[in-house]
Design goal:
With 204 residues, the chain is an alpha/beta fold. It has 8 helices and 5 strands.
């Protein structure tokens, strides 16, 4: 089985992935954030490095998808391959931070890759307002995220909502992060776990 956690920067994907991995005994696949050679450069000069960053993520997530396909274990994945293609890359293009030539090149490659992979059995979408995202980004204190602009987060949120509304590849579960503190409140985490069990096994 393949479960994926989707959501904007700072929504809590990595934390929830770890919590669910420990609770269910699932194998976690995390985003290559610490080892990503482009993130610092990207946040300092988005226009110069946007295409490089998106190709790096696409390659990384495709490799994860191939590993997931081979695995006999239940995998929980921190961010999906679809978010890059339908949210981050189009957003960079619309903001003038990725050229049309680069975007079309990127999307052609994504379409080829997506034809070779299976979608997750369940996507868990973490919906969070921009103030919540900012609060959680500041709390974790990653230096390369100091330059993230509010309008960038807002535009991403708008694209996330459009993607969620149109998503039809499998089961989708939405968690309202503004009103669900699964990090600090065990009762909130228990509610999330109950919802996941219901989605996957139809217990309720």
């Amino acid at each position: 089985m393949h479960v994926a956690v989707a959501g904007n920067i700072g929504s809590g994907k990595t934390t929830l992935t770890g919590l669910l991995s420990r609770h269910f005994g699932w194998q976690a696949h995390y985003e290559d954030v610490d080892d990503n050679p482009y993130l610092d450069d990207f946040y300092n000069d988005m226009q110069r490095w946007s295409f490089n960053l998106q190709i790096y993520f696409l390659n990384s997530r495709f490799n994860h998808m191939l590993e997931i396909k081979k695995s006999k274990k239940t995998i929980i994945q921190d961010r999906t391959i679809y978010e890059d293609a339908y949210i981050f890359a189009p957003n960079l293009h619309s903001m003038g931070l990725m050229s049309t030539r680069d975007f079309e090149n990127y999307f052609t490659l994504f379409n080829l890759i997506s034809s070779l992979i299976d979608p997750p059995d369940l996507v868990i979408y973490l919906r969070a307002s921009v103030p919540t995202l900012v609060k959680q980004i500041e709390k974790r204190g990653r230096k390369y995220e100091d330059n993230i602009r509010l309008d960038y987060l807002r535009r991403l949120n708008e694209r996330y909502e459009a993607w969620i509304d149109a998503y039809s590849l499998g089961k989708m579960m939405i968690i309202d992060v503004d009103h669900t503190n699964f990090i600090d409140k065990s009762e909130d985490l228990s509610l999330v776990i109950d919802k996941i069990n219901a989605e996957l096994h139809g217990l309720f």
